[in-house]
# Entry
Amino acid sequence: MKRKRVALAIAVLALGAVALPWSRTPAPRAQPVRQGVDVYINITGGGSKKLNIAIPEFTVTAGTDSGGVAKLLASVAGADLTFSGLFSVVAGTGSIPPNNPEALRQSWSEFATAGAHAGLHGLLALRGERLETEMRLYDLTSPDHRLIATRKFETSAAQGRRLAHKVADEVVLQFTGEAGIADTKLAYVQGPAGAKEIWMADYDGANPAAVTRNGSINLMPVWSPDARSLALTSFMQGYPDLYRLFPFERRPVQTLAAFVGINSSPSWSPDGRHLAVTLSKDGNPEIYLLTIATGTLRRLTRHAGIDTEPVWSPTGQQIAFVSDRNGSPHIFMMDTEGAGVKEITSGGFHTQPRWSPKGDTIVYTQRQGTHDLWAVNPDGSNPRRLTAGPGNNQGATWAPNARHLAFQSSRLGGWRIFAMTLDGSEPTQITLGPGEHTSPSWSPRLP
Amino acid sequence: MVTRGLHVTVMSLLIFGVALAGCAKRPATTQAAPAPTPPGPAARVEPPGAPPAVTPGPGPAALAAPGAPAAPGAPGAPGAPGRPPAAAAARPLPREFAAVPDLKDIFFDFDKYDIRPGDAKILDANATWLKANANHLVLIEGHCDERGTNEYNLALGERRAKSTMNYLVSQGVQANRITIISYGEERPQCAEKNEGCWSKNRRAHFLVKPR
# Structure
């Protein structure tokens, strides 16, 4: 009898999942179900739509944790889940001793009383240069604190934070059907005008490191779909040329295009085989398709005005771009043959189109005194403002979940990278430290 | 408030429902069993590691200073695997050019690349100097102010340099003496955030070198 009621409750839940305002992914196994079933799992406490999750310090099962990794991993995973916008981390203290079911039960009971709906328990083994963790996710609303999922990860000791990111992404996957975005990187430009280098950091700004150090001007890094390489514009050979570099490998930089004039604004095709780029080799900034393996070029635009900033739709069927052919720069659309050109914004100064990974939204920058982020549907309908200062807010890049955006903002004075959700949540500062931080590119989920 | 409480309850429950679906979908790595089962193979978290760029000593070609000897596959190296035939006609290195007092900058209106009448007179004088000094090549830099965005301004600076070049050619300067480069908004000569400063940055700048 009890089992049957649980099944009913779960079915009800699955049906409702699609209605959650923050859940863009329909439940993978959503089933139609009868209405009016009694709610069996009685989750109370907390008046928010967020799920309350308890994350005690990870439990060390092997090795000596002299560096406080167990505490760090719980803290980082908690920050990741908070950033996701889907969870509230329930405060709690202490760690749970290993191999002690009674202590675990006691701890979960206390967290449940404090309002937690779920509990995340990590087991950590420190083995010299290796770290191993096993995450265990519990439903604290069930009387027996049912185990929902377990999964193991391992990494080098130097990449400890990645373990926490992987755990957090798995938790998001378990509750939404789509993995989180914590195990990703942000590439960006750092430095004052005239001395800009490419840098890279974890998605939360941790572990910033230089990717280029060529002393010239390096601009507009863009991650490849496999998250292994960056396309960029660099003056390293004197002129604005297009290159590809491999930040995780000791591999030479590859020249993509070095024609007379500008070589800029790369956008990867979804399959990673082509780049849409801006070249002025034929006398005027125009958009071309470059096939990477062969170097073959196909010209897409032919207009006396500026055509630049191409960006592929996630289906690979269309390309949005910027053109000043009607006066001020606006966002346009065309197919991959350069046909079907259509203007989708008007009446302003619009640049930096960025197509959502899910295809339903294009974010762009509008200049109106200062710069702010706007969004529009790909058919040009429903233009809407995403930011309203302070300072300038521009250069958006989508997280792979299509819910978060990173961008450059001068709201605190100098340029820093911030992130927010598409619904306009309060932006979070991502990058710290000296220098100007601009042109972020959010990587796909790392392999 | 009963209604609201129930609403919250249902929402939370929904999350768990999805969770279960997620479990069922990925049997290889997750278990929905009521107790921990023996662990499966761990998912390895491998690269990316620390980027090599911060490693001291010889590194990837990306780290080389401009003018350093090119490694195989480095920019400009011939025969690199997969390297597209991207190189065009030889381009003189911008750093070989130097300014001369006789060639004056011209300036542009915001988001414009047409030559203003007053600036045409400056270009006439520049053309006269260039024709009198035919042994010099000229590099025209196109610049923008910081407003607008980097990508667009790179194209805008290119158009400013090109408009300037076209005007000089129309005044009898040989096109094959002229090279253009856009720096977009990347090399402002004035750093303040006001129109007086911006107007100085929206410019075409001239540099020469002997043939």
Remarks:
- The mean pLDDT of chain A is 89.
